[in-house]
Amino acid sequence: MTAATAASRAAGGVRWGRMLRRHGWTASVWVLLAALLLWYATLIPRFGGFEVATIAKSGLPLALLALAQGVIVISGGVDLSAGAVLVLVNAVCAQLMLGRPSALTVGIAVGVVLAAALAHSIVGWIIDTSKVPDIVVTLATSFIFFGLALYVLPSPGGGTSPVIRILFTGSEFGIGTNPWPSLAVLVIVTAVTTWVLRRTRTGLRLYAVGSDRQAAFLAGLDVRRATITAYAIGGTLAALAGLATTAITGAGEARAAIGNLATLNSVAAVVLGGIVLGGGRGSLIGAAAAGYVLYMLSPILTALGVDPNTAEVVKGVLLIVVVMTAALIQSRRSQT
User: Fold this and answer.
1) Non-local CB neighbours of 259 within 8 Å, separated by 6+ positions
2) Against a cut of 0.70, is the pTM above it?
3) Angle 284-303/308-335 helices, nearest 10 degrees?
4) Cα distance between residue 5 and residue 3, in whole Å
């Protein structure tokens, strides 16, 4: 009986150790996010429902874009056009939805998201067919997307319908004290995407290709299909980020600086979330939390009275420390 108990405890310890190794980084990112929220609550005079709702909705586009980038990175690529897709979808939706009935704006939203998925799947096909590195192809397509966004919406403006704003912000005016619609969108999208990656053959194929593309090919996996699928999913999620931006701001703006910063932040969120840049390992749940962590840095540094230019330096230093820490942990795991 004693031996059986000892064996059971040993097995339990092994399981907990395995879970800690697999999910410890993701859990740490969520703990960091909770700590930042508590810290921010002590820095401002009043922290209530309005502030929580503002954080939930304002951080949503970056969290969704981090998911988009995460899917592609897991498959072994990188997408420098993710922010451009966000800007293009924002511009198109704001232009087409202005003054339209609510039912029609919902149809426009669905059509634009599907179009973005198709366009990005073509990007994946080009990458696989041409054998040109992802970073080159997506950089080129980002210029195309930015150009199209400027063509559609030369100057800031446009609009959307109350139903779209309610869907993402809980208010037809985009402001309020209800954080649940924004959080519901994030949870649903993250859960569905994680399920696809972890519980379907398509998702396992993406992990396999990202882990070792040549080995996946020799094992009989359709590498081309995996690449196209990854970019199609990434395009869908980036489009949702653009749609969320339209709902939150109630307008569109085709400014390249917005897209470039969003792209860089999405890559940073992927790294901070524990996804290995080489592909094949990582969790989207951590990337979603990391998106909010990066968003929280700006208001916290502002509340501390840090100059905006200095704040960007601080954010850069923090990201370097995180990347170095992640690299050291990954190196130790590989040696083990």
Assistant:
1) 83, 84, 86, 87, 142, 145, 146
2) yes
3) 150
4) 5
